[in-house]
Amino acid sequence: MMMPNLSWILLLPTLLLGLIFFIPSDKPTLIRRISMVAILLPFLLSIWVFTAYDSVAGGFQFVEQIRWVKEFGISYHLGVDGINSLMLLLLGVASFAAVVASQSIKDRIKEYYILLLITIIGTYGAFLSLDIFFFYFFHEIAAVPVFLMIGIWGSERRELAAMKLTLYLVAGAALALVGLIALYFSTGLNTFDLVVIQQHLAANPIPLAVQNWIFPLIVVGFGVTLTLWPFHTWAPIGYAEAPTAVSMLHAGVLKKMGAYAIIRFAIGLMPEAAHTWMPIIATLAVVNIIFCGLVALTQRDLKYILGYSSCSHMGYILLGLACFNTISLNGVVFLMFAHGIMASLAFALAGFVADQTKTRNLDELGGITKQMPFIGTCFMMAALASAGVPGFANFVAEIMVLLGSWDQYRWQTILAVLGIVITAIYMLKAIRLGFQGPLNPKWNKLVDAQTLVEKFPFIILLAVLILVGCWPLIISKHIETSTKTIVENIVKK
Amino acid sequence: MFPSIAWNLISLEVLMTIALVGLIIVDILSPKKTEGNLIGIFSLIALFGLIGFWLTQHDLSGSTFGGMFIMDSLAWFFKGLFLITMVFVFLMTEQFFKLSGKRSNAFYFLLWLALLGMCLIASSADFLLLFIAIEILTISLYVMTAYLKSDKHSIEAGMKYLILGSLASGFFLYGVSFLYGITHSVRFDVIQGFVSTHPMTPMMLFSLVLIFSAVGFKIAAVPFHMWVPDVYQGAPTPVTALLAVGSKAAGFVILIRLFFGVFSAWHVEWSLVLAGLAAITMTYGNLVAMFQTNIKRLLGYSSIAHAGYLLMGVTAGSILGASAINFYLLGYLFTNLAAFLVIILFSIATKSDAIEDYAGLSRRSGILACTLLLALVSLAGMPPLAGFFGKFALLMATIKSEFLWLALVAAVNIVISLYYYLMIVKRIYVDAPINTSPIIVSLPMRLALGVAMAGIIGIGIFQGPFLDAAMTAIQGMHF
Q: Which DSSP helix (H) or strand (E) runs through A65?
């Protein structure tokens, strides 16, 4: 009998969430403190899970399972391997940074933290679940809280943004659900248990004709979450109008659930169909990189630039997914982590600037690094990371993806490299217009992040980014043990 | 020779009748000027007694009255649904009297009659008894719909419901007469025997279409839905809730008995037609619901859409499909009753059902806003709420029966419906209130809202036992 370690990651914040319901809303400091604890505890647990995961032994560890709905073969089944233990760590860092960055929220605090906690618990649940039903279940929990958070605490065009984001994501998820249920019936096992299905399908794959129509449902469905072109338009506006913590979490972590689902359910379970469909995805990935990159070039709004940039970078993840070799799949998981941290950092900084100046327009900003040296420097680093400068985690990840894709997709890889140049251009443009150059006299009284609490989210995210960039081995060992089996399975076919 | 009657099978209905008669006697005997709501309280007590009695009937099975009346697991399940629905409807009625100012005990008697009719529907194994049971339910609903004599919407609703309802009854009888002509019986077991040995004939099809149109009227499936928006809007809110939950569930128990039992041998012939109806019904309901400004009317159209989702289960024609219907109805019960409870409490405070008046409800009453949020999100089918797993089970059944296109239509519909539900959520939580005065909710009503919310969340998270119950009901059914 194993200790239910992973369940604590879900239970502790849920219990504290229940506690918050009973605290009267006129005690904001207490609510803030409890929420911080509720997010810190699973963060610490996920650090512990990540370090305790034995990457030599591999496979799923810390497994716990409770039968839930026996008629459908649904079980509450948690466990981690190298991929999702890393995702837990990403969520832990990003959610903690996000909750610290939520200090600027002053209105309707109780509702805010309740919704934020539900979103984070749902995301933890999705990454922990080894049951397809529960993955979907947890992954959809976040939809309505995110809608409300953008709707209530967002900026100017928040209502449109909230509606667009939610409808796109739910439409994608509903499509994927049809695919997942079809997958369930085509295995004939009467179980949603990922591990059982994996083992069964390795020996007796689903007929190719069936795989070929289930696969696109799942990839396009979750592709919407991953801002697959042309279903990406919800992201820039959604991230731009959302409150800082939501854009940090969504751009950083929640959209990675799409990539995670594609790795686990599409490529992992239907490798034959992957050979049919993934070349098309590789081409779409390049459209993502180039098209969204070029759109980012034309934007004047800081958060829109970051939003399009995030869509553009998802192209590398998609491109890596389309290659059937260990190095690029490692790159994908690495990039999910690195981009997650980088996007959280960039949105946190943009949110800080927007809160202080009440504008996101680069033409109105200008030279604000003079007033905000700390924020300006951090943004410079985030921009360099985003552009794939060595020393940051993104460089390692993108190099891995591109090395892996070179043999299979020659011209796509060349265009993808071009995408890095585009990133560098729009990021440097944003810095030149907004952060460097002559100070716009309007901002003479601007205040930098001063207290440690204010600086904390930026410091922790930047630290992770540089640490992993200089010492990739600390996470790549975990990734390799788990991607190896997936890739072997694909190559065999 | 008088056939022997197994009274224990029909004891629930007998007790119900006794309760009704007893309440009428109490009403006659009690002084006219009493302040308290004696009948309402007695009704609730009697109802809880009946629920206790219903629990003991769990394993009851058999048929009596020469096979007209059956008691099986399906009947037991649905009687439970009806009883729980009635608890909420009685509570709403009490609030409704506060709103309208006039108390009338006859309203309670009509509700009891409707309950009796619904329970008889669940136990009918004979088309004539079924017809009588449907009429008991429908006639009491006619009267209650037109109950607000001074409100022209209520009168219009009652009139519309009466005319279209009578038409549906006529269709039903006409269909049954053909059926009798072909099979020489109105009993389910005889007809089932006939169906399993004979191919479908055009005349049989004609009679089936007539019967289906009458049941389609009850469940509000397109093209028999015309009455829904006006009646939902015009009827007193407790009656709307009863229509949306009880009457719809009664329609579906008939459909389950007919299409999964009596006519199940002809599954292939009708499944495609039902699939088409399901797709049209849900799409129509959701598309029109987007443009509504009155919340009861919106829930009317949404109830049409839900009939469409539920028809997917009938289309599937499998045990899974029927169990999914049962589970869905169970979740739908708590979800819809929660919504109608909020609507009635809100209309007491504001005298309004307009969606725009719900603006900023979250700042006026936290519990009303939270309940309505959960109800709407559950109707849209989002986890971790009851509506999600219901839709999930229906999608499973549909895909298992290889109606992939129907599953995709349903997926699109979920997104459309999410749009208009979220528009209300936005009004409640995002928009600034026009009127900031807080809405006070009394303690018993808080309790009722709490129970409804617990139902929505509980069924949504611990799906296992509820799905078990839904499935056992199907596995043990006689027809």
A: strand A61-69
